[in-house]
Specification:
By secondary structure, this protein is of the alpha/beta class. The protein is 29% helix and 27% strand. The protein has twelve helices and 18 strands. Strands 3, 5, 6, 9, 10, 17 and 18 form a seven-stranded mixed sheet that branches. The chain has a six-stranded parallel sheet with strand order 13-12-11-14-15-16, sandwiched between helices. The longest helix is centred in the middle third of the chain and has 12 residues. It binds nicotinamide-adenine-dinucleotide and zinc ion.
């Protein structure tokens, strides 16, 4: 059996390991891809650092990490008809069952039997990976492989930005990690007329300006609410896109939202938190929505079109490139926050 290198979680402890394992064989409804590029997500860092969530979720070790990729199909399962060898793909990482109530009613992204690539099954931080055929997204060859690799988190940004009105609107984007940065870029090409971002990391503040925020505020240096009100004729912003998961940022953004505005939350606080439901949602007449994953597959169509159009510039957001062997450097950099998106090449 030919072997491959992969980055795997081998022990229930912080860290990861480079292992040599058999190149996997695709099942009847799967494809085998040669990984051309992969990128590090916050989830991978949680798994690497072995936080509470990872400890509860990761049961069967060793498990190959990683879920964002661009790959070339080199083998197809016997039932797969819509894909062929040589196709270049990215992948939706939420694996849906296809037959639960949610899958049957257009909500496969929140499938009750869902599993996640690189979490519940072996992932893509490897030379080769098996992907369920239903999850493969065939790429327009014009899309560079680096951009293809980050289509999944870009899809989170597209899903959030397009979850309500955006053209002609003022928007507050809280947190300028990779997905916040992508949301700035997407909001801009979708016609948001005033983009205010908040971030505490100096490196990311500069990136946010580069990708098109009109104003970037640092909550460590000034009070966010009066400043945003001042910038919006004391009305507040039409929309909040929450991308930090930080409780203070989340509460401040409720104050900075105009009455009747929409508040879309992608960020995940690491524990339960309080908000003033009456003041911030009921009396404010706010529309608050949780955003999970990407709509399957309308968000993928939108994301692919943005990328093919050439109007969305991801270049400033992809800040670092390493070989797969150097994954530890990538993880360290992610933990420091002094980066945008980090790519790894097998
Ligand atoms: P990230 O952790 O890289 O980015 C969060 C950013 O928020 C960081 O740059 C951090 O410096 C900044 N921040 C922290 N405190 C802040 C504050 N008080 N004010 C403003 N900014 C602050 O994460 P990411 O990969 O860009 O993802 C964004 C969020 O979305 C995370 O919370 C992540 O867990 C979550 N997420 C959700 C989904 C989903 O499907 N709902 C998918 C992917 C990621
Ligand atoms: Zn389902």
């Amino acid at each position: 059996m030919p072997k491959m290198k992969a980055i795997a979680k081998t022990k229930p402890a912080p860290g990861a390991e480079i292992i040599e394992i058999d190149i996997p064989t695709p099942g009847p409804d799967e494809v085998l891809v040669k990984v051309l590029a992969t990128s590090i997500c916050g989830t991978d860092l949680h798994i690497f650092e072995w936080n509470k969530w990872a400890q509860n979720r990761f049961k069967n070790l060793p498990r190959v990490m990683g879920h964002e990729l661009c790959g070339e199909i080199i083998e197809i399962g016997k039932n797969v008809e819509n894909l062929k060898k040589g196709d270049i793909i990215s992948a939706e990482t939420h694996i849906a069952c296809g037959h639960c109530y949610l899958c049957q009613t257009g909500n496969a992204h929140i499938c009750v039997n869902g599993s996640i690539l690189g979490v519940d099954i072996n992932g893509v931080f490897a030379e080769y990976a098996v992907i369920p055929a239903n999850n493969a997204w065939v790429l327009d060859k014009r899309i560079p492989k680096d951009h293809a690799s980050v289509m999944e988190p870009l899809g989170n940004a597209v899903h959030t930005v397009l979850a309500g009105d955006i053209a002609g609107n003022s928007v507050l984007i809280t947190g300028c990690g990779p997905i916040g940065l992508m949301s700035i870029a997407v909001s801009r090409i979708c016609g948001a007329t005033q983009i205010i971002a908040t971030e505490i990391n100096a490196y990311r503040i500069e990136l946010a300006k580069k990708v098109g925020a009109d104003l970037v505020l640092n909550p460590k240096e000034e009070k966010i609410v009066p400043r945003v009100l001042g910038e919006t004729r004391n009305l507040g912003v039409d929309a909040v896109l929450e991308m930090s998961g930080n409780p203070t940022a989340i509460r401040d953004a409720f104050e900075a939202l105009r009455p009747g505005g929409r508040y879309s939350i992608l960020g995940i606080p690491d524990k339960p938190m309080e908000i003033d439901l009456g003041k911030h949602i009921v009396f404010k007449y706010a529309t608050v929505q949780g955003i999970n994953g990407r709509l399957m597959f309308s968000t993928w169509h939108q994301t692919a079109r943005f990328l093919s159009s050439g109007r969305l510039d991801l270049a400033p957001i992809i800040t670092h490139r390493f070989s797969l062997d150097e994954y530890e450097k990538g993880m360290e950099l992610m933990a420091s926050g002094n980066c945008g998106k980090i790519l790894l090449y097998p």
